[in-house]
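Handout, section B. The chain below has 80 residues.
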Amino acid sequence: MVALSVILFPPLLIAFLLVMERVEEPLRRPTSPREVSEFLNTATPGEVETLAKSGIRRALSRWRRRRHSGGRRSDNPPIV
């Protein structure tokens, strides 16, 4: 059992570190002033509320998701 732990621990640690690097990378990227001004000009009331409650990072991530989805709302599908 100890030998198995010794063999599996390094690869699992490396895998964990690689996953954490992917999680941390967007947090290291600073928000540009152009992005903030564009957010303030085009934000929905819900995004402004997120800005007030949770801060600029969460509000911008919500705004980016909306922009990348093409303005479509995934929680309200169109009625046919």
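Note. The two ends are 59 Å apart (CA to CA). Compare this with the example in section A.
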